[in-house]
């Protein structure tokens, strides 16, 4: 029975009324960072995203690989930032892609977040889980190299801040992998954003 | 009598109820929520379930924005403990006869997610308690927290200003007249000394008459 549960239509992603000037900067940054974290989690994430665009019927909004790349370059921190903004439909499409892909990577996310907690509690040595720690470090390193490669230089964040961001994004991704993930992610994007 | 279960790796939510029409479980008779790391289960009625949905929903939303908040609602309270733990405490005195004591459960982020997800599935399930709604609004709680954090510095500022004002009130005001009087004669005295030598050199005959007049004018001032 649980498999039939899906978010009801009432949970339509509604554009907040205050944001008349289009998608705020912080939202464009957030959604791009989430996509970047997914890429760091799964090396083939971009290919999967392109397949998902077709499966979710989003070709109208994102017709090609280049169009997808352009959408991601609306992040003001990007090296190739062209001062373009996201339309609400494009943002909704990206939110759908993030949530659908996150659901597929759910197990890996749980694993990495648990490892993160074990590291903070100093249990890695005692439990002999150095291998898990290496997985987490791998993720952080991949995220770091993706971030430094894509964002403008000099990098807007230093090494420690990038690491912190990578870890925060894990929790955020986990929380949007649920059945109402899209709705929760949509609301969290606008939380604290300036119109 | 219908039972619905929402099970996730670390949390199982059981809903017991009665159906009034078809498959829809519309009247709740009780629920229990059990964590795999905790022998005690959370049990109660509709009020407790609603509070739980509200607290967990709002807390998860705040956590997602990287701004953990303490969310109190009725007898349920969820607060951050350190960076990776979350403390769920339930004061179940009046909630139901089944539970009579305070339950405190420490959850890590994954367990919190499982709790949120089981409640979200319940909220999104149109065949079980259709009245339950997802909670994503946290502005109420945030404004409370902000008010507290903003009020303290503001009040402290006003109080410190008041203390400073009362202390400075007793400090005597300095008298401005004493200082300018002293420098005036010291500056004026050298002037006649310089002026007096040339006067005798220019005209020795007029010196007795002209010399007293410049000397007298500065002294009177």
Task: Give a verbal description of the structure.
- The complex is a heterodimer of chains A (195) and B (221).
- Chain A is globular.
- Chain A has one domain.
- Chain A is built from 9 helices and no strands.
- In chain A, helix 1 crosses helix 7, helix 5 crosses helix 8 and helix 7 crosses helix 8.
- Chain A has 195 residues and is an all-alpha fold.
- By secondary structure, chain B is of the alpha+beta class.
- Chain B has a domain of 136 residues: Transcriptional Coactivator Pc4, Chain A (Transcriptional Co-activator pc4, Chain A, Roll).
- Chain B contains 9 helices and 8 strands.
- In chain B, strands 1-2-3-4 form a 4-stranded antiparallel sheet. In chain B, strands 5-6-7-8 form a 4-stranded antiparallel sheet.
- In chain B, helix 1 crosses helix 2.
- The termini of chain B are far apart.
- Classes of the chains: A mainly alpha (195), B alpha+beta (221).
- At the A-B interface, helix 5, helix 8 and helix 9 of A face helix 1 and helix 2 of B.
Q: Strand fraction band of chain A?
A: under 5%
User: What structural class do you assign from the helix and strand content of chain A?
Assistant: mainly alpha
Major sheet of chain A: size, sense and barrel closure?
none
* Apparent shape of chain B: elongated
Average pLDDT figure of chain B: 77
How many structurally independent domains of chain A? 1
Based on DSSP secondary structure assignment, what is the total number of beta strands of chain B?
A: 8
Rg of chain B over CA atoms, rounded to whole Å, is: 42 Å
Write down the oligomeric state.
Answer: heterodimer
